[in-house]
């Protein structure tokens, strides 16, 4: 009977009172208020799109700045045998720099794609090669005169190499085979003394193909000079290169100190230009990528 009675009457439902908790109670327990009660950010659409526009503009600028880096590779490879540089083993250095600049180009543009997802990785990835590029450019300009004697293509390195007699013997043979003085003689064959003195000569032509200007020699043609009689007005200071000068095509002033200095000036000018280019491009790319990184962080903060 007890079992039938239990089956016929279902158990009574027990109601548990639900106590609604206010946001004030949540604050007292240091808990965040419900989502519907939190204040929402108010983002001005015009300001957000303005930041997006600045970000896009900086991306384009960074890409444009990387294009000269790639074009400099073509210039370096094209000029690899300029002025007998193979004797200094500089073509190998040029190829290494060209490969490095290609890597800089691709890294800079890869950082543009990583900026939306991996901001810190992108900025670190691009700053490391640009810092190396900036340092190499300063070395070519001779900024670090204490250590750059060991670094190829720096001013002190050229000065050390140019005073190596064994190396200079090969260099002057290369200059002779290049026909620089022969070409000067052919183009100046009909020039008078005054016209030749007004002719603009390269540093190699001025140092190797003609005697120094303070020598007591009289112009006959570009590669032939006669000794003048000494007068009272002549200076007592004697240039040792005046005794080295020879009128033969095999001699001229190839053994003069002025020839060594002229050749070093011609060879060094290209590497100085490369140093200026590397420093300027590294600073421009650093500025553009750092500005893009800051604008990207600002854009993510507003989103």
From TrEMBL:
Primary location group: membrane
Segments crossing the lipid bilayer: 54-78, 90-114, 120-141, 274-298
UniProtKB keywords: Membrane, Transmembrane, Transmembrane helix
Annotated stretches, region: Disordered: 1-40
Biased segments, Low complexity type: 11-21
Subcellular location: Membrane
Similarity-based family: Belongs to the tetraspanin (TM4SF) family.
Designated name of the protein: Tetraspanin-15
Organism name: Hibiscus sabdariffa (roselle)
